[in-house]
């Protein structure tokens, strides 16, 4: 038997974050639109060339996006919200939908499945007409054909996943209507001699009922009815395919792809139901999401099992490679860690090794993949956790009353989420310090000055609960990872989070513990400057885990508990030093939720307990806040409630108060601030529009529990928009207090 290889979802940002740089230069008016497009095309060509160098047989195209690949589809299909239609320039309009314009708020942005990638939610409703106005897949196919003489496989997100991303429920209705534009895209590709196309359908891993499954199959029948020879491969990932038997046998496509890294049940299903003779199986055997080298023996074992059921196998990555940095080359981590790692380019190499192993019967060389970074002290502490004793006392209402008395806060207290603008000066000071151009003392005194300025500004704006501003943090996870034991930080391991924003996920390679204080110095300094309460801000255990690369062979639960124990020590010290409010940010709380319903309860059990490990030992007088954003929270309000935080700040502005619907059903009787403005957009929100959200909310939430805050941290903003925005926000509170 011989196999071929393919890949998909290669990182879009470029080896040196070229895309980020070009986008930001364009947005700030430093380069022209032509130049931006040139840069993008250079990257598309460079990426394809790189993939080709690794002897991948089927090279993808249309893997690239200037901002987001779901937004790309919306624009292709003319799903453009009315408020943006008057912007004539197509690219300006594209960015306006993503980022907002002076008079039109951006479309909602939310997390892509259980990852930290964010996409722009298509605004589709009954009556939306889909129309193919542009074929981006064809354009990128031709770009590579003309420049590299390569015949590639265009990759496009499929109709079901696109509609799932639009958060629609009535799939049958919309699938029926969207089929024709997909057929249009594919027909044009076919007419341009494209031989094969990959259609990504990760949404096929969520629990599907019979009706939805039938609607999907009908939609694909409709799409393919207009095609003659083009081969379609449907790719699923992040979990195992749902409704395996029906989909695999009835979906009218040439091949189906499976994730064998995060979808363990796929192999069981194949063993149980077999695999159709007339289809090709794309076997995702090298991970697109975790950074650990593929265990060749394990991968070959999976492939061997598959060969019992089919001869037609193409090897591939398990899910888009965009969740990995470009390469481990040039990273200077300790050798014992480095030798275990494999990023996107190394995955391409691994696929070549596996292909040779199968096609030429050449066994891969022996690997030593053992990880031995353990600490018996940590293990002991974990074993001593009493899961049933993680309970704050007394009850919330008693606690809250005490807290508010001590804190002397008015009704509708105002606060922010923690970070203030990370200005070019701050970034420069940090770079200077890292490069040794300034000393630690100089750097720390610079940060102190920034904290002082931020406290003065907040007092002048009239906020009630202040923050120190997080100027010492590059990133809310990286900062903690740098200070905790068990984490490794890469130099250039960037992955895209949304648009031009990239993060460098730390790598958890060993047991986690806290050797010295994490946030104490800056928080106490800020508190020393003001009479008003300053809240300490920590990133929570689930988020630190979720936004890091997970450890291999240690359960997520155990790692979360280890991080939680370390954070608990910090909270206890903050409290001892007189800090009265501590906020534990958990923006990734929902993101960690498994895609299959059957696995959800187990996840929330340990996720909630990790939060409680951090918070449950504080005094009743100490107020615990948490913060969450840019996810779907409506169906997990009960889980959030179970975390037993005194106050939660939660994003509500970009999803247009969707979260409020949840409070119609669930009585949330704890402190809550629904974010009143979208911090991802540079526009200054008016008092009127913020008041509207607050007024809607207080119909459902007790006034005495209501807080007023932006929907997330302000680090990506500039002071010139932050100050007027917050002033308008404080006015909201003043007006509400008068009315109360
Ligand atoms: N405290 C963090 C900040 O203000 C929270 C960021 C987040 O939720 N992503 O930046
Ligand atoms: Zn946030």
UniProtKB/TrEMBL annotation:
The protein's matches in CDD domains, at most eight in alphabetical order, are given as: CIMS_C_terminal_like (cd03311), CIMS_N_terminal_like (cd03312)
- Pathway participation: Amino-acid biosynthesis; L-methionine biosynthesis via de novo pathway; L-methionine from L-homocysteine (MetE route): step 1/1
Cofactor names from the entry are: Zn(2+)
| Catalysed conversion reaction | 5-methyltetrahydropteroyltri-L-glutamate + L-homocysteine = tetrahydropteroyltri-L-glutamate + L-methionine
Tell me how the cofactor is bound.
Binds 1 zinc ion per subunit. Binds 2 Zn(2+) ions per subunit.
Q: MF terms per GO, please?
A: 5-methyltetrahydropteroyltriglutamate-homocysteine S-methyltransferase activity; zinc ion binding
At which positions is Zn(2+) bound?
627, 629, 651, 712
Query: Which parts of the sequence belong to the Cobalamin-independent methionine synthase MetE N-terminal domain?
Result: 5-309
What is this protein's record name?
5-methyltetrahydropteroyltriglutamate--homocysteine methyltransferase
Its lineage opens with: Bacteria, Pseudomonadati, Nitrospirota, Thermodesulfovibrionia, Thermodesulfovibrionales
């Amino acid at each position: 038997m011989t196999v071929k290889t393919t890949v998909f979802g290669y990182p879009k940002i470029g080896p040196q974050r070229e895309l980020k740089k070009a986008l930001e230069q364009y947005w700030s008016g430093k380069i022209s639109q032509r130049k931006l497009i040139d840069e993008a095309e250079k990257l598309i060509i460079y990426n394809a060339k790189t993939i080709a160098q690794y002897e991948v047989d089927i090279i993808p195209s249309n893997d690239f996006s200037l901002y987001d690949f779901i937004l790309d589809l919306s624009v292709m299909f003319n799903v453009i919200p009315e408020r943006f239609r008057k912007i004539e320039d197509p690219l300006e309009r594209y960015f306006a939908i993503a980022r907002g314009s002076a008079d039109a708020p951006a479309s909602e942005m939310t997390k892509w499945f259980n990852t930290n990638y964010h996409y722009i939610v298509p605004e589709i409703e009954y009556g939306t007409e889909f129309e193919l106005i542009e074929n981006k897949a064809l354009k990128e196919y031709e770009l590579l054909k003309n420049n590299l003489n390569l015949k590639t496989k265009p990759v496009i997100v499929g109709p079901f996943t696109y509609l799932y991303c639009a958060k629609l429920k009535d799939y049958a209705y919309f699938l029926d209507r969207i089929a024709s534009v997909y057929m249009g895209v594919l027909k044009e590709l076919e007419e341009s001699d494209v031989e094969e196309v990959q259609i990504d359908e990760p949404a096929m891993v969520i629990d599907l009922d019979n009706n939805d499954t039938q609607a999907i199959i009908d939609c694909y029948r409709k799409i393919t009815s207009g095609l003659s020879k083009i081969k379609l491969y449907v790719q699923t990932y992040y979990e195992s395919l749902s409704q395996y038997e029906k989909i695999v046998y009835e979906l009218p496509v040439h091949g189906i792809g499976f994730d064998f890294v995060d979808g363990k049940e796929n192999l069981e299903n194949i063993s149980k139901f077999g695999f159709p003779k007339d289809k090709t199986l794309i076997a995702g055997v090298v991970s697109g999401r975790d950074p650990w080298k593929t265990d060749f023996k394990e991968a070959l074992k999976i492939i061997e099992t598959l060969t019992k059921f089919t001869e037609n196998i193409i090897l591939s990555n398990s899910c888009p490679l965009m969740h990995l940095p470009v390469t481990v080359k040039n990273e200077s981590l300790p050798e014992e860690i480095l030798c275990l790692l494999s990023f996107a380019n190394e995955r391409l190499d691994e696929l070549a090794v596996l292909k040779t192993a199968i096609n030429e019967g050449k066994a891969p060389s022996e690997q030593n993949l053992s990880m031995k970074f353990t600490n018996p002290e940590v293990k002991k502490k974990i074993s001593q956790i009493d899961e049933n004793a993680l309970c704050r006392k007394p009850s919330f209402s008693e606690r809250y009353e005490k807290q508010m008395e001590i804190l002397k806060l008015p009704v509708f207290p105002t606060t922010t989420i923690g970070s203030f603008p990370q200005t070019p000066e701050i970034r420069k000071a940090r770079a200077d310090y890292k490069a040794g151009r300034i000393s630690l003392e100089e750097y720390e005194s610079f940060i102190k000055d920034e904290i002082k300025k931020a406290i003065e500004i907040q007092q002048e704006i009239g906020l009630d609960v202040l923050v120190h501003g997080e100027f010492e943090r590059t990133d809310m996870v990286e900062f903690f990872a740098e200070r905790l034991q068990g984490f490794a930080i890469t130099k250039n391991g960037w992955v895209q989070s949304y648009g031009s924003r990239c993060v460098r996920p730390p790598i958890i390679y060993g047991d986690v513990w806290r050797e010295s204080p994490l946030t104490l110095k800056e928080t106490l300094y800020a508190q020393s400057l003001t009479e008003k309460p300053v809240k300490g801000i920590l990133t929570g255990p689930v988020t630190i885990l979720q936004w890091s690369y997970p450890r291999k062979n240690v359960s997520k639960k155990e790692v979360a508990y280890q991080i939680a124990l370390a954070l608990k020590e910090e909270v206890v010290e903050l409290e001892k030093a007189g800090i009265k409010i501590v906020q534990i940010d958990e923006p990734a709380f929902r993101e960690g939720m498994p895609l299959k319903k059957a696995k959800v309860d187990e996840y929330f059990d340990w996720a909630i307990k990790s939060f409680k490990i951090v918070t449950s030992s504080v005094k009743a007088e100490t107020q615990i806040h948490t913060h969450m954003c840019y996810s779907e929270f409506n169906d997990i309000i009960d889980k959030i409630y179970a975390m037993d935080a005194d106050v939660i700040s939660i994003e509500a502005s970009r999803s247009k108060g969707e979260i409020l619907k949840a409070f119609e059903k669930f009585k949330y009787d704890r402190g809550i601030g629904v974010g009143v403005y979208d911090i991802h957009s540079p526009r200054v929100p008016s008092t009127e529009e913020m008041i509207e959200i607050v007024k809607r909310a207080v119909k459902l939430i007790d006034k005495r529990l209501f807080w007023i805050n932006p929907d997330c941290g302000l680090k990506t903003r500039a002071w010139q928009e932050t100050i007027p925005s917050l002033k308008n926000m404080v006015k909201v509170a003043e007006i509400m207090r008068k009315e109360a």
